[in-house]
Amino acid sequence: MMTDIFSRNIAGMTDKLSRSVVAVAGCGGIGSNAAVSLVRAGLGKIIIADMDIIEVSNLNRQYYFTDEIGSKKVFTLKSRLNSINADCETVAYHKELVREDVKTLFGSADILIEAFDKAESKQWLIEEWSSLYPDKPVISGNGLSGYGDFESIKIRKMGNIYFCGDGVTTQEIGLCSARVAIISNMQANLAIELLMKLK
Amino acid sequence: MDTVNVNGNIIEWKENMTVQDVLTAMKYTFKLLIVKVNGELVRRDQYDSYKVPCKSEIDVIHLMSGG
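Structure tokens for the assembled complex are given below, as produced in the milestone run.
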């Protein structure tokens, strides 16, 4: 089964990714899209966490469907990831994340994907992870609102902290599927690139 | 002149200059930041106490809501 799924993967990729663990904090626009791409790429284990239920307003950009409205995001996403590749171990936590969770829930991960929506939450998550694990990368989505302006999207590296996005736009101007998907997949793409070097 | 480099901008360094002093000098009033001084993470609760050495390389990222 694994061989069939990943027959189009790049040489050496499946072996390395199958030995890799990524944590995704948040299962909204960033987290749901990034997690799907990571599992499709052949990730061995993914840890996902989120406290929200699926609302109709999520469907313009998040990897959920109308018949899932009212369900817990994290368990719905787990089911979806299992449908893509049941051999990927998926650990799901339905809870409001706090600083202490970074070590206890995510500590075994090689890389953390920061997939929160509020800047306040992004700040403590990045600070906590980088303080605990300065040698392990964290990849943040930072500035993914609006549409167009593709040229402004970039990766800014600050040691092992990576920021994907335009670094400027905020959700007050509105969020659009295409731009959210581009940046969440930049985060997944960067995670894959880093794991190929780390493993 | 003694200086520090903040996101590519050269500003004057002063004795006992803290991260908060740097942010004020740069007019960075937005509170949701990630700050590194010479590659070392400085947490938000350390901005007032962390002394910035002369010639420091300081990186500041503004965090944007959305996801």
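The mean pLDDT of chain A is 97. Chain A has one domain: 2-198. Further analysis is deferred to the final report.
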